[in-house]
Write a structure and sequence with these properties.
The chain is mainly alpha-helical. The chain is built from 3 helices and no strands.
Length: 76
């Protein structure tokens, strides 16, 4: 199916807590997500995944950032 949840076609696999954060951030009060917010969410997720993968040089699934690096990444 389409969307951001399990079984979605977006290419992202999200756990339930992250899915809830995205719904809280990008949905309307009736819990729908309009097209602009959906695209914005996908762009943000793709950027975050790509940035993380770039920083995870040893492919360990973890990265270590100082405060300035964190601010640069989180404000993208």
């Amino acid at each position: 199916g389409s969307g951001l949840g399990p079984g979605s076609d977006s290419g992202f696999s999200l756990n339930n807590p992250l899915h809830q954060v995205l719904v809280a951030r990008y949905s309307e009060p009736d819990l729908t997500v309009d097209f602009d917010n959906f695209v914005g969410c996908l762009v943000r997720l793709e950027t975050m995944f790509n940035t993380f993968n770039t920083l995870d040089k040893d492919d360990s699934g973890t990265v270590e950032l100082n405060i300035m690096e964190w601010l640069n990444v989180s404000l993208l």
